[in-house]
C-alpha cells in the first residue's frame, strides 16, 4: 500500500510567538488565522505544507520528551525550494536582516544551489534551488 498525505504539518516550539510570527511574515509567508491563536501561529509554507509554531508550553502538551535546546543541538534541517538562485539569496539575506543567524555558507553544486539560516529560535532552514532541466 502506498500512502500520500493530504497535508503536511511541521510543529516547532518558539520562545515568543509574536516575534516568531513576525519573523515568518517578514520572510514573505502568510499566516492562517483559522489555526492561530495567542500560543500558536499556522505558517503557510506551500500548498498543503504548514509550520505550526507554538510557544514551548503549548508544544510540551503534545509530547513527553524534552524540547531540543537548539543552542547546542540540531533537531533537524528543514529545506524549502525556490524558483531561482536569486530567490534563495533573497530569502536568506532577508532572514539574516530580521534577526536570523547564518549556519552555513552557500553551496553551489551546479544543478543545485543551497543556502541556509537559523530562525529566531535556532531552527535550521535550508533554501534550495534545483535546476530540474539539468541531467
Automatic annotation (TrEMBL):
<dbReference type="InterPro" id="IPR029068">
    <property type="entry name" value="Glyas_Bleomycin-R_OHBP_Dase"/>
</dbReference>
<dbReference type="GO" id="GO:0051213">
    <property type="term" value="F:dioxygenase activity"/>
</dbReference>
<dbReference type="InterPro" id="IPR037523">
    <property type="entry name" value="VOC_core"/>
</dbReference>
<keyword id="KW-0560">Oxidoreductase</keyword>
<keyword id="KW-0223">Dioxygenase</keyword>
<protein>
    <submittedName>
        <fullName>Glyoxalase/bleomycin resistance/extradiol dioxygenase family protein</fullName>
    </submittedName>
</protein>
<feature type="domain" description="VOC">
    <location>
        <begin position="5"/>
        <end position="130"/>
    </location>
</feature>
<dbReference type="Pfam" id="PF22677">
    <property type="entry name" value="Ble-like_N"/>
</dbReference>
<dbReference type="InterPro" id="IPR053863">
    <property type="entry name" value="Glyoxy/Ble-like_N"/>
</dbReference>
Amino acid at each position: 500500500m502506498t500512502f500520500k498525505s493530504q497535508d503536511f504539518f511541521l510543529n516547532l516550539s518558539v520562545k515568543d510567538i509574536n516575534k516568531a510570527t513576525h519573523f515568518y511574515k517578514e520572510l514573505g509567508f502568510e499566516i492562517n488565522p483559522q489555526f492561530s491563536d495567542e500560543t500558536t501561529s499556522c505558517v503557510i509554507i506551500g500548498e498543503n505544507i504548514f509550520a505550526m509554531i507554538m510557544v514551548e508550553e503549548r508544544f510540551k502538551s503534545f509530547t513527553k520528551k524534552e524540547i531540543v535546546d537548539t543552542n547546542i543541538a540540531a533537531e533537524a534541517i528543514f529545506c524549502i525550494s525556490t524558483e531561482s538562485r536569486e530567490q534563495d539569496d533573497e530569502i536568506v539575506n532577508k532572514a539574516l536582516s530580521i534577526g536570523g543567524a547564518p549556519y552555513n555558507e552557500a553551496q553551489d553544486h551546479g544543478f543545485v544551489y543551497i543556502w541556509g539560516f537559523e530562525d529566531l529560535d535556532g531552527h535550521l532552514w535550508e533554501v534550495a534551488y534545483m535546476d530540474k532541466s539539468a541531467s
